[in-house]
Amino acid sequence: xxxxxxxxxxxxxxxxxxxxxxxxxxxxxxxxxxxxxxxxxxxxxxxxxxxxxxxxxxxxxxxxxxxxxxxxxxxxxxxxxxxxxxxxxxxxxxxxxxxxxxxxxxxxxxxxxxxxxx
Length: 118
Known about the structure:
With about 120 residues, this protein is an alpha+beta fold. The chain has a single domain (about 5-115), classed as Nucleotidyltransferase, domain 5, CATH 3.30.420. About 35% of the residues lie in helices and about 20% in strands. The protein has three helices and four strands. It has helices at about 5-20, 70-85, 105-115; strands at about 30-35, 40-45, 50-55, 90-95. It has a four-stranded mixed beta sheet, with helices on one face. A hairpin with a 4-residue loop joins β1 and β2.
């Protein structure tokens, strides 16, 4: 039996979580993707398959450089502010198969403090 690498294991966990996690117009899904260098966050309405709000460390106007806890906190505040401007207050958190630890946890907690309801 072949062993799965780290990415394949994460993708399996993500598929398992996504079966239960669905974004609706009233409560869209806050999806997190992290790489070794960057973080990307989207708020998605799965009923129409549309991204409502997005933020990333790749955006030059934010001036964020790395995939660290302080950067994740800043990104959590930014995504919450953008969501509140669009009238989105409640979301379903999709951690993307990543452990709720480190940058994922920092991002979620910063979003909560900035006004999002998980």
